[in-house]
Design goal:
This protein is mainly alpha-helical. It has two domains: 7-168 and 189-273, Orthogonal Bundle (Butyryl-Coa Dehydrogenase, subunit A, domain 1); 284-418, Butyryl-CoA Dehydrogenase, subunit A, domain 3 (Up-down Bundle). It has 13 helices and eight strands. The protein has helices at 7-23, 26-34, 45-53, 79-91, 98-111, 127-132, 223-226, 276-311, 323-349, 352-377, 388-399, 405-425, 434-438; strands at 138-142, 151-155, 162-166, 200-204, 237-240, 249-253, 313-314, 317-318. α4 crosses α8 (276-311), α5 (98-111) runs antiparallel to α8 (276-311) and α8 runs antiparallel to α11 (388-399). 50% of the residues are buried.
């Protein structure tokens, strides 16, 4: 089998990289970071629309005229192509809830229940259709582990028009069962009632606040609020100080909220949702696309380290000529390529365990490569002017999103135990009776 990228895939990746180079060069990144407010940078709406026009968010929807969701202007590609684009986004440190918006468009448009959701009463534009065009920003809340009075983290909440809430599927390790690699979003019956704690839904941002007060000021919140306590106004969304200046974070409690009206009667009964199976698929794909972003960051830090090692001279020669620096760069390359193989393979199989392994390897490659890149840069690497710390901080944030290393390790360990137990229970073939055969 030939696992090399096709000419179309190479052209797609090259075109998206050129788009980011034009619309989000290093100068734009540094300007956003250097002038960031204490709560972090907001989403650049003009850039977001450019991404929508390029097809990033509607990449996996059928092309116009090929399905019920054609109104969203789909491109008709698959998960492997999405991984390639999100890898480029990670390489450029492109900010914003890219994964959440892409998955909201992909899965809620396919269920046929997202197209009527409204951004506001006067706009008359469906939030999913708007998100597909890059005219709406959708962030996400992973509901697993964020219920029972606990709180989850949401990125770019003040800049978002809606929140994609992925409910708890009730089984922390059951994502690898039958149909785990199937795109469940197309199989959801929109007329089937869904438990409120196991579906995927779009929620109005204004609902994340007590008494309809909305999202608190990003700069608000004292030490008690950062520990997960409610603010003085009783708000359920509390701004946190993010380690990444380009990724503002809020801690959100899963208190009672209403979904955005979907045109079927409104209210809680009109939830824009899917099913628990769709929720498991959304969570897996979110982990995979986040891993692709980590892969892009890991590859970028390899290139940055090698480039600096060839430019910086010490004792009359480039520092890349010294064995210690060579070994650092070589280990960085190995980590990135191993992660690349795992991420690309998981994009093809869609298997829960493959995705868990890909996320584990990509997180490790992104964090450790950023650290080694900083080491290669020496004292320069610790300065604010260098971009190395931006990759390290973004890698730290992404490593906690959708599936942490501990969760991935537990899932993979459970799979190994289950496979071992199944082999032990399987009947073993009897050895031939030598005395009877040769006697």
């Amino acid at each position: 089998m030939d696992f090399r990228l096709t000419e179309d895939q190479e052209a797609l990746r090259r075109g998206f990289r050129e788009l980011l180079a034009r619309r989000f060069p290093r100068e734009r990144l540094r300007a956003a970071v250097d002038h960031a407010a204490p709560g972090g940078t907001g989403v650049d709406r003009a850039l977001w629309r450019d991404l929508g026009e390029a097809g990033l968010f509607a990449l996996r929807l059928p092309e116009e005229g090929e399905g019920a969701d054609s109104a969203c202007g789909g491109v008709g590609l698959g998960l492997p192509e999405a991984v390639l684009l999100f890898e480029e986004a990670g390489r450029a440190l492109l900010p914003g809830p890219l994964v959440a918006t892409h998955l909201a468009v992909t899965h809620l448009a396919r269920t046929g229940r997202g197209a009527g959701a409204r951004v506001d009463a006067g706009a008359g534009v469906g939030v999913i259709e708007a998100a597909a065009r890059g005219e709406a920003v959708v962030t996400a809340l992973d509901g697993r582990g964020a219920g029972d009075g606990n709180a989850g983290l949401v990125e770019h909440l003040p800049s978002a028009d809606a929140v994609l809430v992925v409910g708890d599927d009730g089984d922390g390790r059951g994502e690898g069962g039958p149909g785990a690699g199937v795109d469940a979003g197309v199989d959801v019956d929109p007329d089937v009632d869904v438990k409120p704690d196991v579906d995927v839904r779009i929620v109005a941002v204004g609902e994340f606040g007590a008494g309809g007060r909305g999202v608190p000021d990003e700069q608000g919140g004292g030490e008690g609020e950062e520990d997960g306590e409610d603010g003085e106004d009783g708000a359920e969304a509390v701004g946190l100080r993010s380690v990444d200046p380009a990724t503002p974070l809020h801690r959100v409690a899963l208190a009672p909220w209403r979904t955005v009206s979907d045109g079927r009667g409104g209210g809680d009964s009109g939830a824009t949702g899917g099913s628990s199976r769709c929720g498991a698929v959304v969570r897996r794909e979110a982990a995979l696309l986040t891993a692709a972003q980590q892969l892009g960051s890991a590859s970028c830090t390899v290139a940055a380290a090698v480039r600096y090692a060839g430019e910086r001279e010490q004792f009359g020669q480039p520092i890349g000529a010294f064995q210690a620096v060579k070994h650092l760069c070589a280990r960085m390359l190995v980590r990135a390529e191993v992660a690349r193989s795992a991420v690309y393979a998981a994009a093809v199989t869609g298997d829960a365990y493959d995705i868990a392994a890909a996320k584990l390897l990509a997180d490790d490659a992104a964090v450790r490569n950023a650290r080694d890149c900083l080491q290669v840069h020496g004292g320069m690497g610790f300065t604010w002017e260098a971009d190395v710390h931006l990759h390290l901080k973004r890698a730290w944030v992404r490593s906690r999103q959708w599936r942490s290393a501990a969760e991935a390790e537990e899932l993979l360990a459970d799979n190994l135990v289950d496979r071992r137990m199944s082999r032990q229970k399987a009947p073993s073939a009897e050895c031939p009776n030598d005395s009877a055969q040769f006697g």
